Amino acid sequence: MNEISKKVMMSRRGLMLTGITLLGSYVAVSSLPSWAIPQEDATLQAQQVQFMRLSRLLVNHVLNPAVGARMLKVAAAEHQDLARMMADIIAIAEQKQAKVVEDFFGDIPEGPLQALAHWIIFAWYTGCSSAKKDAKVFTYEEALTYQTTIDVVTIPSYGLSGPNRWSQVTVSLADMPRF
Fold first, then answer.
1. What's the predicted TM-score (pTM) here?
2. How far is Cα 25 from Cα 21, in angstroms, rounded to an integer?
């Protein structure tokens, strides 16, 4: 091989390695959950913290912040004064020194505050914004409807081995006889 073809091969190899590196970086960054990527808007971040705090008061389960961020986006679109409403409900809970929803839910006044509290509970348990056909879906696999009985009931799915699992490893039950 002459010197020019060696340079061409090296540049092709370098180009291929660069492409693979860029592709790998893209895959790594895009697979991060949305809450792991720093956000520039401090107001949005403060609302997410407030929403997750309220959600933990209303729902006594381990909650995913990424799902909460999707819920917050829909709730903010439906309620213009969402921050004030969340603060009011949290204030009621703090006044009662509540640890669980039963400690303060009866003290939430009927109307928009109680409707918001019901909506947050509904959204976490069903994984969607309403029972209507045009509802926004936040999660399926992490909906609390299935989490409370996960040890005895499997999550309904068309996947062969569960949600988001479209292949199944076939394991033989016994060694095949040899003749």
1. 0.64
2. 6
